[in-house]
Amino acid sequence: MIQVLLADDQMLVRAGFRALLDAQPDIEVTGEAADGDQALALVRERRPDLVLMDIRMPVLDGLAATRRITEDPGLDGVRVVMLTTFELDEYVFEAIRSGASGFLVKDTEPDELVRAVRAVVAGDALLSPGVTRRLIAEFAARSKEPAAAAGLADLTEREREVMALVGIGLSNEEIARRLVVSPLTAKTHVSRAMVKLGARDRAQLVVFAYESGLVRPGWLG
């Protein structure tokens, strides 16, 4: 069973997510938190596979809670997906930089939410490619100027190419079509780049792609 923790200060939001996720045969909601401090305590107690974390919460906000989770070696297996409203929240890219494995807008379709939970636990990240590309373009424009990323020189030319495609929000299948290779080959290149750069997941690989200058805002072809 996939164990999910819900962290949102709106009880109705938590109730809706719980009803949807608990109805799945392979997903179980293991707890709820109304603020980041409660979320952090429950994560340490129950070690869920995934936390659906609202960005804006009292006591301790979602960004701070996510940072504490991802920096704790004892919680290495816990993944965090941020919940956001695209028009209002300006911290999604910073959340990914802080270690979140992805993000979802709160009005995500129910089927997409379920797929997202399963995808992140399976090791994928940066959900909903269309939303991903819009958000990356929006928030990467506010990131720092590119700097040489440690380990970038260790990547092969193909790994750099694949990393750049990950950076513009392409899935393994889309990368495979773009490069005319199999999805398995694309996934292998992504995995090798992650290992060489010490990236926690695909989400952090996107951060490296932008911060190293391999991808710049607007390169969404």
Automatic annotation (TrEMBL):
SUPFAM superfamilies: C-terminal effector domain of the bipartite response regulators, CheY-like. CDD domains: LuxR_C_like (cd06170), REC_NarL-like (cd17535). Residues 3-121 form the Response regulatory domain. PROSITE patterns: HTH_LUXR_2, RESPONSE_REGULATORY. PANTHER family: TRANSCRIPTIONAL REGULATORY PROTEIN NARL-RELATED, TWO-COMPONENT RESPONSE REGULATOR. Keywords: DNA-binding, Phosphoprotein, Transcription, Transcription regulation. The modification 4-aspartylphosphate is found at residue 54. It holds the Pfam family GerE. InterPro entries: CheY-like_superfamily (IPR011006), NreC/VraR/RcsB-like_REC (IPR058245), Sig_transdc_resp-reg_C-effctor (IPR016032), Sig_transdc_resp-reg_receiver (IPR001789), Tscrpt_reg_LuxR_C (IPR000792), WalR-like (IPR039420). This is Response regulator transcription factor. It comes from the Bacteria. Residues 148-213 form the HTH luxR-type domain. Gene3D superfamilies: 3.40.50.2300.
